Amino acid sequence: MKKLFISVLTLFLSATVFSQKDSLQLGSYYAEDQIYLNVSFNSLKDQPSSISSSGFSFGFRAGFLKDIILNKQGSFSFAIGLGYGYDSYSHDLKVSTLDNIDQFEVGTGIEANKMIIHNIEFPIEFRWRNSTAKRYKFWRIYPGIRFAYNFSNRFSYIENNQRVDYKNIRSFNNFIYGATLSVGYDAFNIQLFYGLNSFFNDSFVEGESINTKALKIGLIFYIL
Fold it and tell me: What is the mean pLDDT of the chain?
């Protein structure tokens, strides 16, 4: 499934590269169709009180955004996109499955506890920039929302000197969404992602609901 999606995404992005020369028209009316690349530092918020903060975590995403102009000058637009996202989290929640029932515990006595996520992503951005058709260095402010469909999740850790892996657990939320904000000048842009729903559905640890969400901050590069 992952190989098929990556192949389709590669073909999609390759096709759009050839149309980029037409996306920035000379004149007052133009669009900025773009490939985007994003790297981020990830953390987990709203965790149960018995779970400590996450360790070093990171993410990577890439895709394409289609620019839809909202005014003649091109300073306001609406963009929709398609992409792939990878996230790795170091965390203290022990996940296991017994008889097709997911179980959650405080991760004491285990090491290298990781949550790996692969998503198909659908970003939406509301864009303001002070560019023109001939000026390529400009300020931008792009608030938006990003929807993600999870097609693979894996939980792994080392317990009693043995690696344990659980893949595609049933309690994992297949649809994740959150607010985004990209701000920057020219090639240097900072993006913030604030998760609005939990990674898990109807899950509990020590009687407390697991409402863990993502918080990400990193750099995003828009490539014409």
Answer: 85
